Amino acid sequence: MTSVSVAGPAMASSRPPSARIGKIVLYVVLAVGAILMITPFVWMVLTAFKSNAEIAKFGWLPGELRWRNYVEAMQTAPFLRYFRNSLFIAVGETAFTLAVCTTAGYALAKLPLRGSKALLNYFIVLLLVPFQIILVPLFLIVKSIPLFGGNNILGQGGIGWLNSWWGLIIPLGAAPLFTFLARQFYVSVPNELAQAARVDGLGEFGIFWRIMTPLVKPALITIAVFQIEAAWNGFLWPLMITTSDSMRPLQLGLAIFSQNPAEIQWPYLMAGTALATLPMIVLFVFAQKRFVEGMANVGIKG
Amino acid sequence: MSTTLERPALETPRKVSPAKDSRTLIRSQVRAGWVLLAPALLHSGVFIVIPVVAVLVLSLTDYSFGDTWAWVGFGNYADLFRDVDFQASLWHTVLYAIVVIPISMAISLAVAIGLNQKIRGLGFFRTAFYIPTVTATVAVATIWLWIYNPGSGLANGFLSLFGFAPNRWLADPATALPSLMVVGIWQGLGTKVIIYLAALQGVSRDLLESAQLDGANRWQRFVNVTWPAIGPVQFFVLITSIVGTFQVFDLVYVMTQGGPGSETRVLVMDIYQNAFQDLKLGYASAETVIMMVVIALFILVGRLLQKADVND
After folding, report:
1. Total CB pairs under 8 A between chain A and B
2. CB A103 within 8 Å of CB A220
3. CB contact under 8 A, B14 and A199
4. Terminal Cα distance for chain A, rounded
5. Of A146, A133, A153, A169, which is closest to residue A241 (Cα–Cα)?
6. Could you report the per-residue pLDDT of A206-251, keeping only the tens digit for each?
7. Which stretches of B256-280 are DSSP H helices?
8. pLDDT band at A15 (very low <50, low <70, confident <90, very high)
9. Which of B48, B89, B277 should we substitute to test contact with A (largest number of A Cβ atoms within 10 Å)?
10. Which CATH class is domain B83-311?
């Protein structure tokens, strides 16, 4: 980030007045952009405090801060349960993804496998397959996972992983994107470290787990943040495979809550939305720097 | 982190002959490699490769969750070409992609160039532009649903500031799809800005400076140095945007349900309804195959455009 400054000062010293005006214009444009990005969220939070009378016509500020809207919103729909379900899915999916994708990424980057180049290309091609394309067969596969949900060994007779935590977590975890991303990070760790440990008598799995993986923490953070966001914000898949309300995640709860235009209670809906959104914004603000580095790695070396 | 580097590991020579030693070492590495790779291969095989193959096969059948099904050849495809809902969905999705992709790429690049100057508050701006991206589409859609509310929403409040008559936005067939596009562009900026920003910071300082010494102005430096340098990233952004816009579903599902009429019906929504409400899995699969082909065409055109650009 520090290297950005080179072009700036040189220009500023040659043409001070126009450069200063340019800078002011730049700030104004960026600020307007930032406001356009943030306004809807401010609007959401403000609306959540309003009364039903206040939302009937356009206005910014609520007359008083009705914190009870949040409490009442939590009571009108089982938001707490939705919240817990989303948390469970996000944590489970992230743990699964980290385990599968770091191991695969490491093997692709550092171990002398025959055809590792082709395997890498395989994962790159897969990362272009949109989930929506495989929607229908994925549903059928999940429905016929053998020995689950009343299925026999051939995957017949029951519902498999439908309406189960397995079905919510496993199929969408471990996306090829994360295997690719992990690989990009492992590639840049010097081989000498692994060699030294090998001579020292450390096994291959020990090298992976104790030597190499601690060195790619930025990758782990990036993958974790990405995956938590994806799991938290997931909608279509839970919509398809959950039938009981007890397993529905937050986004589904919100959508169902907003499906009845005649009876939407905007303050409650906005309160629920604010509560659903806040954790992800906080997560991003804290993980921001590492996250951005990780994104840079996917984009540039891709 | 540097502590692991300093371990005196190299000073314990082994007694085994080096050739044999290195061969067994390699073998154990290969074995470990396949073990470590196996879960990812198994997972991607079961949950991506098999479904992709299955969708091709299913599209030639009339499968509908029942016990009996039959091959119908290309019957599903023939039916699709007579299906007005499908045609509307395809058209809206393509239109959505054609409008949203270039506009959002151009805005993102411009914002990234702005952020790449020496400015204060980079972290703030970056977060501001990224917040819509980390927010669930359902939440985003819910907020915008309220903004577009014809009675008391922010959009009409904004229009009234300038004395314009209120609009019905999502309820008006003429403005429904454009209203969705605005949200799509708005929400997609964050990721692209961050990727472009990373790419811009990787552009060679030396090249930019020597171009400046040769008397190239800002615009010339951008066209001749920066633009070619970020080519690969442009392509990455383009591909992810194509795949992303064709996936649009949550937004439409929450905001319009495809209405008014079928003015905002999109492909994934049509597929979803055919598959899981009408239970026509074979038919929905055929629809998916067509979507795959259209995405491939878009990527191909993108590639050609980029090639043409490089040859200039």
Report:
1. 323
2. no
3. yes
4. 21
5. A169
6. 889 988 888 888 788 878 888 888 888 888 888 888 888 788 888 8
7. 267-272
8. low
9. B48
10. mainly alpha
- 3-class secondary structure, A285: helix
Mean pLDDT of chain A: 80
Instruction: Compute the average pLDDT of residues B70-79.
Output: 87
Distance CA(B111)–CA(A273), nearest Å, equals: 28
Say yes or no: B161 contacts chain A, CB-CB below 8 A: no
What are the residues whose beta carbons fall under 8 Å from the beta carbon of A218, sequence distance 6 or more?
A185, A290, A293, A294
Please list the alpha-helical segments (H only) found in chain A.
7-14, 16-48, 68-76, 79-110, 116-126, 135-143, 165-169, 176-187, 191-199, 204-206, 217-233, 236-241, 250-257, 266-301
Structure tokens at A3: 């290297």
For residue B97, pLDDT over 90 is answered with yes
Residue A114 has a CB neighbour count (10 Å cut-off) of: 10
d(CA A231, CA A247): 14
Q: What is the pLDDT of residue A262?
A: 61
CA distance B16 to B29: 18
A87, burial (CB in 10 Å: exposed 0-12, middle 13-18, buried 19+): middle
Predicted ipTM?
A: 0.79
Residues in chain A within 8 Å Cβ distance of B51:
134, 136-138, 141
Asked, as a colleague might, if the bond just before B260 is cis with ω within 30 of 0, I would say: yes
Of the candidates A133, A137, A283, the beta carbon closest to that of B292 is on A133
Residues 174-233 of B with CB under 8 A from A: 186, 189, 191, 194-195, 197-199, 201-202, 205, 208-209, 212, 232-233
Select, from the ranges A132-141, A241-250, B54-63, B303-312, the one with the highest average predicted confidence (pLDDT): B54-63
Q: Which amino acid is at A49?
A: F
Q: Chain A: residue nearest B240 by CA?
A: A128
Q: Tokens 């272009």 correspond to what residue?
A: A128
- Contact present, B44 and A108 (Cβ < 8 Å): no
Residues of B in contact with A47 (CB under 8 A): 146
Query: Which pLDDT value is given to residue A261?
Result: 60
Q: How far is A71 from A91, CA to CA, in rounded Å?
A: 26
Say which residue the tokens 């790695």 belong to.
A297
Closest CB to A137 among B55, B130, B157: B55
Q: Could you tell me the residue ranges of all domains in chain B?
A: 12-58, 83-311
Give the pLDDT band of residue A140 (cuts 50, 70, 90).
Answer: confident
* B284-291 average pLDDT score: 90
CA A121 to chain B, closest CA, distance in angstroms equals 13
* Residue from the list B7, B160, B198 with its beta carbon closest to the beta carbon of A300: B198
Residue of chain A with shortest Cα separation from B230: A300
Query: What is the distance between the alpha carbons of residues A100 and B1, in angstroms, rounded to a whole number?
Result: 24
Tokens of A263: 């009876």
Q: By CA distance, what is B116's nearest residue in A?
A: A4
How does pLDDT run across B173-209, given as a tens digit for each residue? 888 999 999 999 998 898 888 878 877 877 778 888 8
Going from the N-terminus, what domains does chain A have, and what CATH number goes with each? 76-301 (1.10.3720.10)
